[in-house]
């Protein structure tokens, strides 16, 4: 059974304002919830069907509310609710950073599916940190969480003034930017300590960030599409940089 | 002004059944409609705001209905309608095929955003043909059309019995399949006349298709994500095969 207050609370977490207030976010579907259970994230409450509870043996210290499918649908942000939904505490932001290796910077990426897919790609290639401009979509947006397919537990997403950050670390790392008219990534030699900047879906990298990029890179175009989706670009570029 | 019958007809095109009956589909947003206008597709009707009509000078032989934003919202499949929506005739399927170069085969890809993104990636890399199993999502689904960003006009998407097709052409081309345990794509030499098969989002390539693949390929995994999104995989693999 789920109370009216619980319904109201879980649904409120679809909005950033209430996530910030309560410091909680929502994770849905078995794959995602199981990844959370196997991570350091702290769960506030699980809502799940009888079937799900019987299938997965959850530790005793986690609060589980057995609900039916209709109740799940009422709190879900999905068109068709899955068998489980978890309310999870937002962890403290990391405060010490290590810029060695490959790091990603996102300059106002707005689409939740794109951020989620980029997190999943980073997890595939072992990239641990994504630095986002403050205008980038919130990582705890339900659509972002959903499309990470659990990778949210293994990639740190940090919101910061990316211009200041790039200026501070540029002495020690190479700063690459994915643009339309840079050097062909298949031809360049890559620096293994790098920041790679990706821009907004419509406008690309902003002028103030472009000015402080040291190497402009491009995916060689053979056909006629005007542009590639930012997550597709990240996939191709990380395959090059991380191998 | 838009009539009740027009509203009913345009909205019906969100469903595959009615698209098949009327042989029409819907294209929304300026970028997509302009790509259609610059292609061989035949437009049945454009619905657009006064602003849009004044900004873009459309040929006289195209029927334009001037409507307001509220009317557009009533026929749109988008959360927020853009300034223009076109009803477009579905072209006849191509009947003669040329399997030279790189061709894509999709085995039951279900997500509209994935198919749309793959079409856009193919257009970037100059891949002209995508062969889809009959269970693959319909290319004229509004979400597919939207996420192609106009590339739908330059890439042919053909629905067929892909098993039979692969068996017929396998003498002349190499048949690659993207799987979890194949050869690292960064290490292989690629054949420039190839079919590359990508599988369903949850289950990968079906057994009956796996059995007739000649080379199994994989994107080298460095981190811990269980899998990559199928469009991300297509981006990485086409960057390798088409360059």
How is the topology of this model organized?
The structure is a homodimer of 243-residue chains.
Chain A: H1 4-12, H2 16-22, E1 24-28, H3 30-37, E2 43-48, H4 50-55, E3 64-66, H5 69-75, E4 84-89, E5 102-106, H6 112-125, E6 129-132, H7 142-148, E7 156-159, H8 162-169, E8 174-184, E9 194-198, H9 207-210, E10 215-218, H10 230-242
Parallel strand pairs in A: 2-3, 5-6, 5-9, 6-7, 8-9, 8-10
Antiparallel strand pairs in A: 1-4, 2-4
Helix pairs in contact in A: 6-7, 6-10
Description:
The structure is a homodimer of 243-residue chains. With 243 residues, chain A is of the alpha/beta class. Chain A folds into 2 domains: 86 residues, 60s Ribosomal Protein L30, Chain: A (2-Layer Sandwich); 141 residues, Alpha/beta knot (3-Layer(aba) Sandwich), CATH 3.40.1280. A 6-stranded parallel β-sheet of chain A has the order 7-6-5-9-8-10, covered by helices on one side. Chain A has a 4-stranded mixed β-sheet with strand order 1-4-2-3. The longest helix of chain A has 14 residues. Chain A is elongated, with a radius of gyration of 20 Å. The first copy, chain A, starts with a helix and ends with a helix. The relative contact order of chain A is 0.15. Chains A and B meet through helix 6 and helix 10 of A and helix 6 and helix 10 of B.
């Amino acid at each position: 059974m789920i109370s009216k207050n619980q319904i109201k609370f879980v649904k409120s977490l679809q909005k950033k304002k209430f996530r910030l207030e309560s410091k909680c976010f929502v994770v849905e579907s078995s794959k995602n919830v199981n990844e959370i259970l196997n991570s350091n994230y702290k769960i506030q409450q699980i809502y799940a069907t009888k079937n799900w509870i019987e299938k997965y043996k959850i530790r005793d210290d986690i609060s589980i509310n057995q609900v039916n499918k209709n109740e799940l649908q009422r709190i879900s942000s999905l068109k068709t609710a899955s068998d489980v939904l978890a309310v999870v505490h937002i962890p403290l932001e990391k405060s010490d950073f290590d810029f060695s290796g490959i790091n990603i910077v996102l300059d106002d990426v707005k689409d939740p599916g794109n951020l989620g897919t980029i997190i999943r790609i980073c997890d595939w290639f072992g990239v641990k940190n994504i630095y986002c401009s403050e205008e980038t979509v919130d990582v705890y947006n339900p659509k972002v969480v959903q499309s990470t397919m659990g990778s949210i537990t293994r990639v740190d997403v940090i919101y910061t003034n990316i211009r200041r950050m790039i200026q501070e670390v540029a002495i020690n790392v190479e700063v690459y930017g994915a643009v339309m008219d840079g050097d062909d990534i298949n031809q360049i030699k890559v620096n293994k300590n790098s920041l790679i900047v990706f821009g907004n879906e419509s406008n690309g990298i902003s002028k103030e960030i472009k000015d402080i990029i040291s190497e402009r890179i491009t995916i060689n175009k053979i056909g006629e599409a005007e542009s590639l989706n930012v997550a597709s670009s990240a996939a191709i570029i990380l395959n090059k940089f991380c191998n």
